[in-house]
Each structure stands twice: as C-alpha cells, then as structure tokens.
Amino acid sequence: MRKKGLMIWLIVILVMCAAVVISGCGARQAMPQEDDGSVIASGDGDNVDVTDEKEEEKETEKNSDTSAETAKNQVKPAEDKSIRGIPDAIDTRTTDDGDLLVVVNKYHAVSNNYTPKNLVTIDDKYGTWKNMQLKGEAYDAYVKLYNDAKAQGFDLKLCSTMRSYETQRTLYNNAVKNKGKEVANIRSAYPGRSEHHTGLAIDVTSASMGWGLKQDFADYPDGKWINEHCQEYGFIIRYPKGKTDITGYDYEPWHLRYVGVEAATYIMENDLTLEEYVGQA
Ligand SMILES: [Zn+2]
C-alpha cells in the first residue's frame, strides 16, 4: 500500500511539473500597437508619415515564420521585410576606410567606437542645431548645393547630420520608451545601424516645409529641385519610393547620402538604391 501511495504522489508531482513547463513556454506578451501615427524622428527611419504601417504588419506576419531563419544567411540587405525587427548584423565595421560607398543598414552595422575620418563641424548657419558635424567631402558638396539652391530662392537647413552611437542609442531608447519596442524598430535605427553614423548622410528641411520633414517634400519646389539636382553635387535620395524591401526604410525625400558625383549620377539616373549599386541587394 505504501508503495502504491508513493507512486501516486510521484505521478501527481510529475503532472504538476509538466503543467508549469507548458504554461511557461506558452506565455506571450501583447504586441504594442501604433495608433496615432505621430512622429518619432530618429532613425534613418526619421519618418514622419508612416502611412502603410498596417500593410507592413501584414507583410511581417506573412514572413514571420521564415524571417528569423533567412536573416543569418541574408545576401540581400533588406529582403527580409520584417523591418520592424532587428536582424543579426552580417558585419560590423570598426574603422572608416574612406569608402564613400560604405553601406550601413539593418544588416551592415558599425561599432560603437566607429569614428568617421575628416569630421568637420559645420557653420551654424547651415543647421537647425549648433555644432553639427559631417565628413569634410560631404560638407563641401552640401555647401555648393546650398548656395545653388539659395540662388533659386530656396531656404534650406540641415536638421540632422552625423549621429554618434550615443545619440542613436538615446533616440532609440526614447522611441522604445514612448512607443514600445515593436514600433521603435520600424521607425528608428537600432544603435550602430544608422547611416547617419558615417557622417555622409544629411536630413534637409526647408522654410517651405515649416522646418519639418514631410514625405511630400518632392512636391514642393525646393524638394523637387533637390530631387532633380542632388546627384550633380554627389548626393542621392537614399530611401527612394517603392524600394523599402531593399533599403529597409520607407520613402524619405529629405534624407540625402553623399556618394560622390559619378556614383550619384549613375544611381539617380537608373533609379537604383545604394545597395543595388554596390551589389548588395
Ligand atoms: Zn536621415
């Protein structure tokens, strides 16, 4: 009898253990939902009007079972459309080798101590902030663009230039705090994955846009002019319309990237992304 009683107790204990394990595995957290479409100006996704987020969510759900698997073997930088997530970086640059075509995106990262060479502090008159920094070659090109735009009657300012790892971390953490991790991941670059870190990227705003950032910038005379002429100064529209599956970011007409005149001309004339141009798409 005693042996039988012991067996029963043993079975009860085993059943209880199994129940605890099963409930633990099945625990899920509710996904934070975006509801007001408000601004999180931070990533390379310094986006202001994410209009098709719902579509992205559907797309993400469709791909969610395969995305984690494919991310590690990813050849195309942003083919994984689960851009709300943070895939493993394929590589991480630690030093600036001077390559103007350097790709920094959700798959190609830079380390926290990556410091662009030839960083210069720009004249305060060009920026909406003081002491903004850019790589010298990008700054020189922008000054030419600025002067020619001014001659056309356009009033431009830079609202974002080089962003340090610390700044990216602060922006990302604030986005997570304010909107939750899921939303932050589609709106803000994860620290070390922002192209602004290179010192070759700029966000251009204008008086006509009320010094904000708008997705219809190219419909304004100054935005249209930039869209048509930026390559003459060595800049490209880095996140073009309809290329989110390659760049990982929504259309950003205000975000320009310096790559040099030759590459910029080819990229813009052939409607390419930087990823496609360097063969990483
Ligand atoms: Zn930007």
Explain this structure.
- The protein is α+β, with helices and mostly antiparallel strands.
- The chain has one domain (81-277): Muramoyl-pentapeptide Carboxypeptidase, domain 2 (2-Layer Sandwich).
- The chain contains 9 helices and 8 strands.
- A 4-stranded antiparallel sheet has the order 5-6-8-7. A two-stranded parallel ribbon has the order 1-2. Strands 3-4 form a two-stranded antiparallel ribbon.
- The longest helix is centred in the first third of the chain and has 24 residues, at 2-25.
- The structure holds zinc ion (ZN).
- Zinc ion binds next to strand 6.
In short:
The protein contains 9 helices and 8 strands. By secondary structure, the chain is of the alpha+beta class. The strands form 3 sheets. The protein has a 4-stranded antiparallel β-sheet with strand order 5-6-8-7.
Give the distinct bound molecules. zinc ion
End-to-end CA span: 72 Å
Helix content: 25-40%
Give helix and strand order, one letter per element, not per position. Answer: HHEEEEHEHHEHEHEHH
Distinct helical segment count: 9
CATH topology call = Muramoyl-pentapeptide Carboxypeptidase, domain 2
Instruction: Give the class from helix and strand content and strand pairing.
Output: alpha+beta
Number of domains: 1
Using the coordinates above, name the CATH class: Alpha Beta
What's the number of extended β-strand segments?
8
Report strand order across the widest sheet: 5-6-8-7
Major pleated sheet: 4 strands, antiparallel
Give the amount of beta strand, in percent: 5-15%
Architecture per CATH nomenclature, i.e. the level-2 architecture? 2-Layer Sandwich
What is the multimeric organization of the chains shown? single chain
Mean pLDDT level = 77
Shape by Cα distribution: globular
